[in-house]
Amino acid sequence: MRDDAARGHNGGPPIEDEHVPEWGRGGIGNYFSWKAAHRKAYRGVSPEIMMMRAERAERIGLTYEEYTLELLERGRYLQPGDVARIQRIKRARQLSARQK
């Protein structure tokens, strides 16, 4: 047994994985402000607007979140003719999926 091991500890791995809070391992920072802003942006709209965005997103091959983020960041609705921008969003999604 190591000298720095706690009394009664056998030195083996922990029984459970270490708890990681929702905001990650770093400090809490602005976590709750960002969470409230995210909730307002994505859920603070009427059901009709939500359905319209979801249908438009599906038509061009994006998720509701991707489509809404584009609207919030750039202030414009993506159209089927915005092929280059849609492809960049899809590539970013694929890269993000590979990193997980």
Question: What attributes characterize this protein structure?
Answer:
100 residues, mainly alpha, elongated
Short description:
The chain has helices at 31-43, 47-60, 64-74, 83-99. It has 100 residues and is mainly α. The chain has a domain at 47-99.
Describe the protein in words.
This protein has helices spanning 31-43, 47-60, 64-74, 83-99. It has a domain at 47-99. It is elongated. Helix content is 55%, strand content 0%. The mean pLDDT is 85. The protein contains 4 helices and no strands. The protein has 100 residues and is mainly α.
The H-and-E topology, N to C, reads as HHHH
The pLDDT mean sits at 85
Low-confidence stretches: none
How would the global form be characterised?
elongated
Number of continuous helical runs: 4
Quickly give the structural class.
mainly alpha
- Count of DSSP strands: 0
Q: Classify the oligomer.
A: single chain
- SS strand fraction: under 5%
Which sheet architecture does the biggest sheet show? none
Helicity, in percent? 55-70%
Using only C-alpha atoms, the radius of gyration works out to 22 Å
Q: What is the first-to-last residue Cα distance?
A: 36 Å
